[in-house]
Amino acid sequence: MADIISDIEKSIKDVIDRAVKKACETQELNITVMPDYIIEVPREKTNGDFATNIAMLLPKQAKMPPRKIAEILTSHMDTADTYIEKVETAGPGFINFYLNNKWLINVIPVIEKEAENYGRCNKGQGKKINVEFVSANPTGPMHMGNARGAALGDSLANLLEAVGYDVTKEFYVNDSGNQIENFGKSLEARYLQLFGIEAEIPEEGYHGEDIIEHMRELIKIEGDKYLNVPEEERRARLTEYALEKNLARMKKDLADFGVEFDIWFSEQTLHKVGKVEQTIDYLKEKGYTYESEDALWFKASQFGAEKDEVLIRSNGLPTYFAADIAYHKNKFERGFEIAIDIWGADHHGHIPRMKGAVEALGYNPDRLHVIIMQLVRLYRQGEIARMSKRTGRAVTLSDLIEEVGRDAARFFFNMRSADTHLDFDLDLAVTQSTDNPVFYVQYAHARICSILRQAEENGITILPAEEANLEVLTEESELAILRKLADFPSEILNSALAYEPYHLTRYSLELSSLFHTFYNSCRVIGQEENIMIARLLLIKSVKQVLKNTLTLLGITAPERM
RNA sequence: GCGCCCGUAGCUCAGGUGGAAAGAGCAACGGACUUCUAAUCCGUGAGCCGGGGGUUCGAGUCCUCCCGGGCGCACCA
To answer: In chain A, at which end, N or C, are there fewer CB atoms within 10 A of the end residue's CB?
Structure first.
């Protein structure tokens, strides 16, 4: 896909490379190794549109000061047939390039042509990538950490897909192991209690109202038929029932949040088909395990972890870790080149051992990338809010959607990088004002739609970009918008490769701000024909790019507000 | 004690592979609506980038040691 920024950078590099060659030919410079120089955008506009540091990387080779090198290179630069208008040397040895603003207007026809595909590319070349996120315990409702993970993971998946990866979004269902045992015991206790039979919820069990609710419903449907069956059978059935209910609930809550998984991967199935056992056997054969105190251990410390880890407990049951190894082995066997896991900060200690396990399995550990999210703190009226307004219990994902809405929640979760604590201001998220960033962005979109509607009502025909005279876009606020629009493809690529969708919220805010500034200084409708058409095309481009950005974030772009 | 993350304006945070005089939003103060949505815009003030060393032409960014905060260090997940 077209990216006018990288095109222009390429043309500048050409100019530089040719100048170096020429300077060497005339023996003014003696350079044998071409340095790895960069083209960058100077912070200060007065330093040009682009700059290069090449002269500052050459003093040793050329045996002269950087400014002198810059002068020589500049003198050999041939800028014919480029947009470069002026080249200057400055500062400690920068070479600054000043461009004719006309290069920027090319972005409008590109956006018009590519529309919803503007910004996308094929960097990923169809490589298979697995993004596992949320993976909340199916023993109860989802909390704020799960919500942040959902927003982050889904936007990241969209982003990776946009740059050409074949993305699979996956939810690992922990429907096995200790916590499920406790879940079953808790359900059973409630079930018996509802029939007036004395029973106790285990120490580490689940005491929530939802457990009682599940059993009330089950009794309504199936009555007392599990009172007189063997304990094991009873627990299995109660667990199965409640898990199914919880999973359905999670699917619904996530769907309300705009998150749809491709695969819900059951941990239980790994055990059932013997994958866990096979994986353990494999590690055993490789000599990466040993027995101690009746348990089987994985030599994690041999692979960079702090200590060894138990695979099979002395009671004969495999640990969660053992299943997780089998799960990751399975991911790679399914052909994923990269597996991304999104975990809460409280799990960060597991990264070395998990990567160690991947390595022990014979895969490059770099193929597993773990994103650690820091905690979310909710604020209401300036104070930490732990409880839901409505239920009085811990705030769940569905509470959050109900209180602030899906768009605001998704935007807020993606405003900060994953590794900073997130202060979520619930009051701000519902505010319909300039303070609320998501409204600010959506308002920009709606405002554009409003102008376009009026243009249509006034019978104004917008020409195709190729036929319009876009050179009349010379106002500072117009040029600033064009520059921002041109940045979009690299913005997406960089965010995707860094696995950091939060750059998109910032981008959307910056573009919106530039639009609002333009709106207040330039009128569109009623201007001289050429200018009006050009501005209509400009704001249409802004609308398209805002829409594309919001879509990646899973947020709606309203036509009116 | 060991490991990971964080420490930038009063508050919340940005600062691609090191680059030229550190940015934004909010809060504070002062302005702009007979005109396409004032849910907006314009302006002002505000900083030993936690601290000390080091690497180099050049460090908020890299290395090291401290200080402060969060989270881990189970035969739980």
So the answer is: C
